[in-house]
Specification:
Number of helices: 15
Strand content: 15-25%
Protein name: NAD(P)/FAD-dependent oxidoreductase
Cofactor: FAD
CATH topology of the largest domain: FAD/NAD(P)-binding domain
Domain Pyridine nucleotide-disulphide oxidoreductase dimerisation: 356-462
CATH architecture of the largest domain: 3-Layer(bba) Sandwich
Number of domains: 3
InterPro entries: Class-I_Pyr_Nuc-Dis_Oxidored, FAD/NAD-bd_sf, FAD/NAD-binding_dom, FAD/NAD-linked_Rdtase_dimer_sf, Pyr_nuc-diS_OxRdtase, Pyr_nucl-diS_OxRdtase_dimer
Number of strands: 21
Radius of gyration: 24 Å
Organism: Microbacterium rhizomatis
Length: 474
């Protein structure tokens, strides 16, 4: 068997693995990346990029319909074929040639095949032809294999061949009817997209829509989805599934039934770690990999787990943030340099704990960062909640003639700083980074009085929050 030696081995060539490899090479170390599917990973071909491409056509159409002078030009619904073409452009027709060229340009070697840890700092790669290569790392191995859709243990569910998020985002023939199991981000976004295409969508949401967010987020999104014709079954479980000649039939715990041409399961994720050879180094196959803030796997001094597979935050941008920290700390340790592992140090992923930003591309959009009211109270924080109706700011009328939105700020009273923010409404995604900066930078509210929002924009909500909180007196 051929053996090759590198400073660092990365398993998984999605955005997270690419970023680990890039930081390592920039730091002067040699690196090989192992990939069994497409270079660019889930985000590029089956998640972030195709899903947002599918969502945009409907969002743009509804935005035009909400503005007098533009709505008169709208003469039809979403052209589904055009929306799918746009998705195909975003995914490069599932061709990773440009991503491979980027690796080559960055000085990162690629090995195609399935990588398994076979011992300390050792990875065995099995290619499509069955041939094997043994890779040995001088310093570190980083696992960046991501996560996969969870299929719950419901009698008959696997036999009806349900969709996962991959099937939904790579769809070629849009179904007339679609049942969605789960009310999280994937379920809400795909309900928005397919309802925009004219599909009759039914959602089965046991714990409510977007339940991990502020309650008003799920409420506003559900109202908008119902306006698009989506039907909700809340507080119920699917107890059984079977398929007829044309449709899938789901039996509900309340005795009801849902019949749909296709079923999308969006009930959670599992780690892609079941066939990685983790048992060879004393770790549990198929488990989430526990790491410290430098992304080093607990109990090892050479194995790192970055991105979804460590279960800290299942978001691409947060995984890339972890990758930058992991790559840099691998270089520092390889060179015997100092490790800055204090909170907010360059070698740690501190933001994973209380400063995670996320945009949910429903219509209305949900943009959130930091702690919700519920999470802050559960953590024992002394807080004040500031709520504001976004339709009351002057900038909302420039966006839409019928703007509906809500914003909430969570203030840590002991420190006088923002620790959470949620915006729901049209065009609120671009408000999020200012809130993220305020939270990460721990900017005192008294200083934020001097951050003047432009007029007329929706960002004027910042001033309204401060007015509600009250200006400090001398």
């Amino acid at each position: 068997m051929q053996t090759r030696e590198y400073d660092v081995i990365v398993i998984g060539a999605g955005p997270v693995g690419e970023n680990v490899a890039d930081r390592v090479v920039r730091g002067g170390l040699s690196c090989v990346i192992v990939e069994s599917e497409l270079v660019g990973g889930e985000c590029s071909y089956w998640a972030c990029m195709p899903s947002k491409a599918l969502l945009r056509s409907g969002a743009a159409l509804r935005a035009a319909e909400s503005v007098d002078g533009a709505k008169q030009a709208v003469t039809g619904g979403v052209d589904v074929a055009g929306a799918l073409r746009r998705r195909d452009v975003a995914t490069h027709d599932w061709d990773d040639g440009s991503q491979v060229k980027w690796l080559e340009g960055a000085g990162i070697e690629l090995v195609r095949g399935h990588g398994r840890v076979s011992g300390e700092k050792t990875v065995r790669v099995t290619g499509e032809d069955g041939g094997e290569i043994r890779l040995v790392a001088r310093h570190a191995v980083a696992v960046a294999t991501g996560s996969a859709a969870l299929l719950p243990d419901i009698p008959g569910l696997r036999e009806i061949d349900p969709w996962t998020s991959r099937d939904a985002t790579s769809v070629q023939d849009v179904p007339a009817t679609l049942a969605i199991l789960g009310g999280g981000v994937v379920g809400a976004e795909m309900a928005t997209a397919f309802a925009s295409f004219g599909t009759k969508v039914t959602m089965i949401v046991r714990s409510g829509l977007l339940a991990a967010m502020e309650p008003f987020a799920g409420e506003l999104v559900q109202t908008a989805l119902e306006d698009l014709g989506v039907v909700f079954h809340a507080g119920v479980d699917v107890t059984a599934a079977h398929r007829t000649d044309k449709n899938a039939v789901l039996t509900l715990s309340d005795g009801g039934r849902v019949v749909a041409e296709q079923v999308l399961v969006a009930t959670g994720r599992v780690p892609r770690s079941g066939d990685l050879g983790l048992d060879s180094v004393g770790l549990e196959p198929g488990s989430w990999l526990d790491v410290d803030d430098t992304l080093l796997v607990t109990g090892t001094d050479w194995l790192y787990a970055v991105g979804d597979v460590n279960h800290r935050v299942l978001l691409t941008h947060q995984g890339k943030y972890q990758a930058r920290a992991a790559g840099d700390v691998i270089v520092a340790r390889a060179n015997g340099g100092a490790v800055d592992a204090a909170p907010w140090g360059v070698h740690v992923a501190t933001a994973d704990h209380d400063a995670v930003p996320q945009v949910t591309f429903t219509d209305p959009v949900v943009a959130s960062v930091g702690l919700t009211e519920k999470a802050a109270r559960a953590a024992g924080r002394s807080i004040r909640v500031l709520d504001y109706d976004l339709s009351w700011v002057a900038g909302s009328s420039t966006v839409s003639d019928s703007y509906v939105g809500q914003a909430r700020a969570i203030v840590d009273e002991d420190r006088g700083v923002l620790i959470g923010a949620t915006f729901v409404g049209p065009d609120v995604a671009e408000l999020l980074h200012s809130a993220t900066i305020a939270i990460v930078g721990e900017v005192p509210l008294e200083r934020l009085w001097h951050a003047v929002p432009s007029y007329p924009t929706v960002s004027e909500v910042w001033l309204r929050w401060l007015e509600a909180y009250g200006r400090p007196t001398v």
